Protein: Succinate--CoA ligase [ADP-forming] subunit beta
Amino acid sequence: MNIHEYQSKAVLKAYGVAVPEGLPAFTVDEAVENAKKIGTPVVVVKAQIHAGGRGKAGGVKLAKNLDEVKNYASELLGKTLVTHQTGPEGKKVGRLLIEAGSNIKKEYYLSFVIDRQTARVVMMGSEEGGMEIEKVAAEMPEKIFKEYIDPVVGLAPFQATRMAYNINIPQPAIRKATKLMTCLYNAFVGKDCSLAEINPLVVTAEDDVIALDAKLNFDDSALFRHPDIEELRDESEEDPKERRAAEAGLNYVNLGGDVACMVNGAGLAMATVDIIKHYGGEPANFLDVGGDSSPEKIAEAFQIMLDGGQAKGIFVNIFGGINRCDAVAAGIVEAAKIISDDGKSLPVPVVVRLEGTNVEQGRKILQDSPIANVIMAPTMEGGAEEIVKRVKAAK
Ligand code: GDP
Ligand code: MN
Structure:
């Protein structure tokens, strides 16, 4: 789960991380009022959306007086901000963060993430702050430093100090930087985060060290331990398809492409996404229907994939173990009944590869069904190739 920058900063502040003074605003009047309360010569008006890249997209404005605050707030509230992280459709700004301006001397990068290979929390730092870390990793990997943290010991003081020196924090700010690292680590562990990213971390002209931006992601499986975090959920920021799928007990992740797939089992679902890509297609989603596939559930999965016209083709890839192929086939027939008036067609071609329990019955259900655009595929490779070809032909 993601939360907004202003919420992340409030969480971090409670752990002792230095953040600028700031207040959220939902209306222009509130923005002006909060700017008055903050009262510094410069306040920053920041669009709050669940995506980065706001600076470059015009979502971060420096206001020198209350008139400017008013103008920027009116401009940003309600605006759809398109950044390199939002996708072309952008995200609508419903909230602002009004923050005291900082006297930035230099920007740095600092984050904690979970490293799968070592099964540890890793702290990453760089003196190339403000730019995307993926870009730093690609262009100057030697500028990224890592510290792997022993879960029993926690972030050791020598690791924090080594990081501060590695990323060239100026001498008078070293202790403030290591303190911030420790507090950020405590927040990461205390709130079961999967990511805590400060980009930029800044050293100010006064040699203070502050988190100018803050992004926290939380492990969904641990949210039950943090009702205070769960409360911060902003449903308007979440993908409506992902929300609907979660309600139906489906494991769905929108990947933005146009070749949809419906698979059973996370491993096979990942392999299916890969093989679609291998044949030159752009996967629309990851979708694991799980072990119990009632026809109703399959029909719901079809509706989610087809909703909004994103999918130009669907690849059904089922290896029935616990799942029964006949139930999946019945689900596809059910979906066609719900989606089209006559139950005889689906809006996009559907390539089906069925294998496993009750496969003969499943194939027969589809062959006997009146749906026109269902194509049976004998193999996974053949099915992937076929659906990519059909989606390309449709474009
Ligand atoms: P992002 O683009 O979505 O990651 O948003 P950030 O919060 O990182 O802001 C982008 C950039 O705006 C930062 O890298 C800073 O250069 C600038 N910025 C943000 N807050 C301030 C501030 O208080 N003062 C100044 N001078 N610049 C700021
Ligand atoms: Mn940032």
The radius of gyration is 25 Å. The CA atoms of residues 49 and 356 lie 44 Å apart.
